[in-house]
Request: fold
Amino acid sequence: MQTKNRLESIDTIRGITVISMILYHFCWDLKFIKGFSMPWYGTIGTYMWQQSICWSFILISGFCLHFARQPIRNGLIVSLCGFIVTGVTLIVLPEDPVYIGVLTLLGSSMLILGLVIFLLKKLGILDNTDNAKEKKYPLDPLWGFLISAILFAITKKINVGLLNFGIFKLALPDALYGRGLNDGMSNMHLTYLGFMQEGFISSDYFSIMPWFFLFLTGYFLYGILEKRFSKSYFQIKIQPFSWIGKHSLLIYMIHQPILYGITMLL
Reply:
């Protein structure tokens, strides 16, 4: 299998997103740890800011799965980083721990899709080599993109018990969400899948549904754009954003301890 060339523009976009994330988290620390008066933080504008960050990260992660030589190993590494984040926050910020955060979601998505690809290759259904003209994807990339995006839109509100079909919204059974039990830590497997249990608290929460469908959207987006990768706009390298994008996992792991230290010194 030939090595795919790196797309500098993707690293640049990811680097810009990392900077945006750091600024967002610094504002969070100032407001909720240091108690700064920031009435604008928590408005719809802040929500859109937060959504732009997580959408970008998840889409790019799905897109870049095509560059992973060992997606299952990568998924295990990222999942382990997610467990480390949970452990550290339980010790340092027990009142605001992170359960099923974005790293857990990304690691799980890599594992799920990596295993599916592995099985499809073993069965001869899929051939992901660069020389393959057919069978590179489980289905046509455009259809995969559309179906994944629609499933993401339908399940976007699944954490609060709703499936969105446009003007029609379907309420899911209360039993799936443990309503009335007031014990958010029971049935964590359901919370992990997207059926957030009543009373569950996490300062960062990204369940499999709906976010795995956004990850899949990024995965199929690669197939739609693949023929255009030779264009110059896929090789835009802007430092230091490109460098940050290439080291995003490491920066993610260390940025909050650094921000926390800065916050406590203020």
